[in-house]
Amino acid sequence: MKQPSSVSSLLSPALWCVALVVGFTVAPSVGTAAGDGNTEVGRAVKMYCTNVRDKAVEARFAWQHKKLEELGAKLKQKIAELEARTKAYQKWYDLRNRFAKLATGKLVRVYSLMRPDAAAKQLEAMPETTAAAIVFKLETRQASTILNEMETRKAARLSMIIADSARKSSGGRS
Questions:
Q1: Which of these, 145, 91, 141, lies nearest to 123 by C-alpha position?
Q2: DSSP 2-62
């Protein structure tokens, strides 16, 4: 029986297994002693490799499975974020459509034919979003005259609503 070299005595059977599986040899005499299977060390290494092979494969599959589950969780989180954003955009879109529908052509025409002071008093009394929608659809000259007749704070709030609406419809650019 061939005695393993001093290098081979330093290596554990696990390292021998790795070396044999990967195809490395530490030194010609070491590789021969462990790899030929006819020596005691070679048989021990082969037996060890055979015994741990299934466990190593299972451990690798478990690690891969864990990584896939982590990636799946991240993917689910991103999907949830995108769905939340989609809901927010849909809500904004619906609000914008309702805002536009509040001021139909006939109603706008009615306010455009009224005296500015009378139109201003009526617009001050109604909900701000409705009043802003109407003012938004009026001709610029009529809208400015009506806003001029309104209380300053109310006119400013309506102007802010209209400005925000215009900013959102242009993609947030000022």
A1: 145
A2: PPP-HHHHHS-HHHHHHHHHHT--SSHHHHHHHHSSSSHHHHHHHHHHHHHHHHHHHHHHH
**Cβ–Cβ contacts within 10 Å for residue 84, how many?**
10
Number of C-beta neighbours around residue 34 at 10 A: 26
64-74 confidence digits (pLDDT tens)? 999 999 999 99
DSSP character string of 117-151: HHHHHHHHHS-HHHHHHHHHHS-HHHHHHHHHHS-
With 0.85 as the threshold, say if the pTM is over it: no
Q: Which two tokens stand for residue 127?
A: 């909900």
Question: Quick one: which of 138, 140, 135 has its CA closest to 162?
Answer: 135
